[in-house]
Amino acid sequence: MSLLSDAKNIRHKDPAARSLAEVMLLYPGFHALIFYRVSHRLYQKKHFFLARMVSQWGRGFTGIEIHPGAKIGDGLFIDHGSGVVIGETAEIGENCTIYHQVTLGGTGKDHGKRHPTLGDNVLVGAGAKVLGPVTIGSNTRIAAGSVVLQSLPCNCTAAGVPASVVRKDGERVRPSDDLNQQNIPDVVHSQLAELERRVHHLEHPEL
Asked: Which of these is catalytic: 40, 100, 200, 201?
């Protein structure tokens, strides 16, 4: 996919984008892809120092840090983008959407493959952290603020800290086309309510 196609894809996905020129001139997510494409090409040719230099220029210019060793498919939309970090061995499929403050990082305990693999059409909400060599299945959505430490299946929604699946094979809407992150179950609240119920049962077994 060409950079022009990337820009058209962002224009299609973002209802706030009023023109293609606006995307190409003003969107840090698009600029980050330009820096990434250049640095990744250098990385593939084993010009590692130059690759990191270009990627660090991109980080300073956009606030988005993408290691040149990461593998990114076509159609990535980094919305807003500030604070996004994508690690060296991360892999991202096609048509994915990533919001600001997202980390696709490592845990510090793994070697070799240390970062996540995202399938196609994955949406990662604002502030979510996906850590370690986990695999996120295609068409899966990760709710804002979640921390994912285990692999997730395809066609599901995950939320919470640590994240767990809260919806599986529900409404069949491609996450990249439906950017609404409302009405996601509050996993923490549900767990606290269950804990409160168990404590009440222990304190009042006669009830």
From this structure: 100
